[in-house]
Records
---
Amino acid sequence: MKKIGFIGMGNMAGAIACGIEKSGFLKAGDMIAFDIMDGQLDKVKELGFSIADSEEDVVQQSEMVFIGVKPQVVEKVLQPLKDLLKEKAIISIVLGYDYAKYNEILDASTRHIFVMPNTPALVLKGMSLLEETHSLTKEEFAFTLDMFASIGEVEIVPSHLMGVAGTVSGCGPAFIYMVIEALADGAVKEGMPRSMAYKLAAQTVLGSGAMQLETNIHPGILKDNVCSPGGSTIRGVEALEKGNIRATFISAISAALHYK
C-alpha cells in the first residue's frame, strides 16, 4: 500500500509530488501516480515513483488519494471511483471544488480536504492554503499539514476566503515572474547580459519577500527605507507610479478572482 496516490500529474501536481520527494517527507517508493497522458509521468518515473495502470489502480493501492485533474473533468473522473473511494481520504487541488462541492459528488463516507498550492512547491518554497472546513480525521489532517509544510509555507484559510487567497498565491507567481522579466529587460536595455539580469532580478525578489516575512515590517516602510531623498530609487518609484503599478496589480487580482 502506497502512502499517497496521484490522479493527474500536471504542472501543479508534478511540482508537489517532486517537492515532497525532494524534501524527504516521503520516498518516491511511497507514492504512485497515474495520468492519461504518459508524458506527464516522465518527471516522477525518473524519481522512482510507482506508475499505476488506471485511476482505479491508484485508489486501490493508496492510503490517501490526491486529485490533480482539470476542473472540467473532475466529476467524469470521480464518478466511476465513487464506490472505491468509500472510507478513503482525498486531497484535492482542483480549483472550484471545495468542501461543499465535494460533499455533493462523493459518498458521505469519503473524507476530503481542498488545498490550493502553488508551483514554487517544486523548490520547497511553496505557499499552500488548506481549507479550514474538511472531513479528514485528526491524524490525516496532521499528515496533510506536515506534508505541505515540507514543501513551503502553509496557511489554514476559512472557506469564504479560499478564492481570493488562492488568487494571490496561485496566480501571483505568474505576476511576479513578469516583474522579474521586466526588471531584467530594463537591465538588458542598459547593457547587462541577460543571464546576469535574471539572477539579479530573481534574487532581489526572493530577498525582498524573505525580509518582509521575517521582519513583518509594512512593505511601504521597507520601500521608504530604500528611498533616499532626491535619490535614484524614489525616481524609479515615481516612474512606476506613473505607470499605475499599484492599480494594475489590484486589477490583476480582481480579474483573476472573478474570471468565469
---
Amino acid sequence: MTDEVQDIGEDRSLLLVDDDEAFLKRLAKAMEKRGFEVETAGSVAAGRAIATARPPAYAVCDLRLEDGNGLDVVEVIREKRPDSRIVVLTGYGAIATAVAAVKIGATDYLSKPADATDITNALLATGADLPPPPENPMSADRVRWEHIQRVYELCDRNVSETARRLNMHRRTLQRILAKRSPK
C-alpha cells in the first residue's frame, strides 16, 4: 500500500466526469490503483445524476463537456456534500475560469494534460498545503497548440472559421495544423 492510499481516508468514493472516453478510462484505472473507488460519467447530466444519488468524497470534473459546463456538477456535489474535495480540469487555463471554479467550490484547478499523480496531489492536499508544481509542465508552445486544436475541433475542423475566431490568418493556421504537436 502506498502513502497516497493511506491519506485518502475511509470514504474513498471518487467521481470522474469527462467526455474524453479514452482519458476517462485511463484516469479511472490509475485512480483505482491509488485506492479510490471510482465512478465515471461522460456528461454533465450523468455527473449530476451520480452526484445527487451518491455524493462522492472526491471528484474530478472536466470544465467543458459536450452537454454543458462541468461547474454544474461541482455545484451539485457542493450542495449534497460540502466536505467533498473537487478538482476541475480544463484544456485551457484561464484565470477567470479558475476563479469561477474555486468560487463555486472546487478545491483546485488543473490544466490538461494533468496526470494521475498531479490530480491525486491536488485531491489530497490539505489546508494551506499546495501540491508541488508538475514535474513536466506543458511548454507555452504546447499550450498554444492545444488551444488551437480545441478551437479547430469546436469549429468542426473548419479552417476558415477557426482562423476567424482565433484572429489569425488562414494560411498561418494551416501551417500550424500541418505540423506535429510541440513537446
---
Amino acid sequence: MKSLRLIFCALWTAAFVSGCGAYSFTGKSTLSSDVKTFTIRDITLSAPSSYATISQEMTEKLKEYYQRNTKLKLVPQNGDISIEGSIVDYRTDGVAASSGGDKAAMNRLTIVIEVVFTNKFNEEDNFEKDFSFYLDYPQNQTLQEAEKTLVPKILDQLVLNIFGDTVAKW
C-alpha cells in the first residue's frame, strides 16, 4: 500500500511539473522563439562627472551577461532585440548625519542609466526607461577610493535589472 501511494505521488508530481512547462524559475524562456540575435550599442555617457571608463564597462558587462545567460547571438547591428542607453546621472550625496550633525557619516553613490529596448518580434515589449542603483560608503573614504569597489557592484546590479526587464521579465 505504501509503494502504491509513493507511485501515485510520483505520477501526480510528474504530471503537475510537466503541466507547468511555460514557467521558468530563471525567467529565461519569455522571449519568442523567433528571437535569435541581440545588439547592444555602446552605452554613452552624458552625466557631467563620472568614473573614467564607466560607459565602456557597462557596455561590456551587458554583452557578457546576455551571452552567458541566453542562447542569443551577439550581432553588431540590427539584432532581433536591441539595447542602447546613456548614463545620465552619476552623483554622490550625503545620506546619514554624523554625531556632530554638520557632516555626513555616510555618502551614497548613485548611477542612473537611461535604456531604450527594442524587440522586433513583439513591439509591446519595447520601452524607454531609467534604471538606477546606489551603494553607500563611509565619509572617511574619498569618492575616488570608493569608486574602485562600488562602481563594478552598481553596474552588475544595473545589468541584472536591465536583463530582468528585457529578457527575463522578472
---
Amino acid sequence: MSFQLGSSLLDACVLAVLAKEDAYGYSLTQQVREIMDISESTLYPVLRRLQKKEFLTTYDRPFQGRNRRYYRITDSGMEKLQELRSEWVEHKQKIESVLLGGINGE
C-alpha cells in the first residue's frame, strides 16, 4: 500500500537529510528514495522552492571535469525542520490513535 505524501512531509525529509550532511542532487534523490518514492524531476522543484524560501543554499564543487551543485541547509532551514518535526509528532500521534486504537483510543 502506498500513501500520498504531502509537500510538507517531503520538505521535512529533504531538510532532515541535509541536516546530516550537504548533498548533491542525485545523491539527495537516492537518500530520499529510501523513505519515499520520488524522482529527480520531482525533487528539483522542491529544492528550488526550499532555496527560494532561504531554507537551503547551494555551492558548486568540481567533480570529474564538471561542477556538482551541493545543497546545504541554512539556520532558517534548521528552524523550519524543527517546526516540521514537531508537527510530524503531533500528526503521527493523531493518525496512530485512529489507525491503531480507534477514534476514542480504545
